[in-house]
Design goal:
The chain is mainly alpha-helical. It has 14 helices and two strands. It starts with a helix and ends with a strand.
């Protein structure tokens, strides 16, 4: 009798131990997928995938402007960065500023000018000079170097988002940025391994690199400012004010600094005029579409999605400028897209 009861108690202990272990296993099996589901829950949103797709379209538009600038500089000797961007601001003024002027009440042009004109003036100055500096850099350095150094925008945006916008990033966001920057490493390796680039001189390229980094810094500031304005107000107001002040600022700068360069352009040569118009049209489409991505992804993810511009530009360089194709180009594109998806898989949080 005692033996049977002892046997039963031992069996119950073993059963309880077995059931405990199985419950732990089941908990672990449900914990890991559950945690992964929480991390990547944002990937189920069509709005997110639409924003990522639009980001690739924006990258192609930026690639178009980069290639056109390279052609204007190297083949036609056009060195007028302010004039090249002036038409952009005029187009924005004719469209978005006109729409803003037709509004009434607190959202109207006069009320916006009265309450916050100085904020838009500062952002417009930075935006005009950012476009000026990046286009100017093509006179000193190469398309590849400019595309790589443009990535300096990302740490600027990360810092300003954390300090100004009070965005708090998680580990998965850092992983996404790191994966994207691995793509930049691939391009740097490929660039160092390639011998097809034309040597423009160490001093000249250093000047171009510094000019490009200054423009990238200004781009980072304006991107964060644009995210703030379109979330607090709306995109029509931002683009309208940018078009208004940008036209005035670039117009004065054009008259003061680039009158000889504009006069020396061959205005009867349809290729030069066509390239300038195509550049302005592509950049106008870029500016008009950017708020759709910024409002969905934020400025950091927006700039990560634009990293694929480097890949598209290098592929265009292979086709048009006889750059040497490198297998690392394709690998860099995979890193860019993967890093953007990882970063966007979980929304960042703005501190209260």
């Amino acid at each position: 009798m005692n033996t049977n009861s002892s046997h039963c108690s031992n069996s119950s202990i073993v059963y309880r131990q077995g059931s405990t272990e199985s419950s732990i296993v089941r908990a672990e099996q449900t914990y890991i997928p559950g945690k992964c589901e929480r991390y990547f829950s944002a990937l189920e949103s069509w709005i997110l995938w639409r924003a990522i797709l639009i980001g690739q379209i924006l990258s192609l538009l930026l690639c178009t402007t980069a290639v056109i600038t390279q052609v204007l500089t190297s083949r036609f000797g056009v060195h007028a960065p302010t004039a090249q961007n002036f038409l952009l601001y005029v187009l924005m003024c004719l469209t978005f500023t006109t729409v803003l002027a037709c509004r009434t009440g607190d959202d109207g042009l006069l009320n916006v000018l009265k309450n916050r004109w100085w904020k838009y003036l500062i952002v417009s100055i930075l935006d005009v000079e950012a476009n000026y500096l990046v286009v100017k850099a093509y006179q000193y350095t190469t398309l590849t170097s400019i595309q790589l150094l443009d990535c300096f925008t990302i740490p600027v945006v990360l810092l300003l988002s954390w300090v100004v916008m009070r965005v708090r990033f998680k580990i998965i966001h850092i992983v996404g940025v790191s994966v994207s920057l691995m793509g930049i490493g691939c391009l740097v390796w490929a660039d160092a391994d390639s011998s097809k680039e034309v040597d423009k001189g160490v001093e000249s390229r250093l000047t171009g690199d510094m000019v490009c980094m200054a423009g990238a810094f200004f781009y980072g500031v304006t991107n964060v400012a644009e995210e703030h304005f379109i979330k607090k107000y709306d995109q029509i107001e931002f683009l309208g004010m940018l078009g208004l002040f940008g036209t005035v600022i670039s117009g004065f700068q054009l008259a003061l600094t680039e009158h000889p360069q504009v006069s020396s352009m061959n205005w009867h040569h349809w290729e030069e005029i066509g390239l300038v118009v195509a550049y302005s049209a592509a950049l106008y489409a870029f500016y008009a579409t950017v708020p759709l991505v910024l409002s969905s992804l934020g400025s950091t993810a927006f700039n990560l999605s634009l990293l694929s511009t480097d890949y598209y530009s290098l592929i265009a360089g292979v086709a048009l400028f006889r750059y040497k194709y490198h297998a690392l180009y394709a690998m860099s594109f995979v890193f860019f897209i993967s890093g953007t998806i990882i970063f966007c898989s979980k929304k960042d949080v703005e501190a209260q």
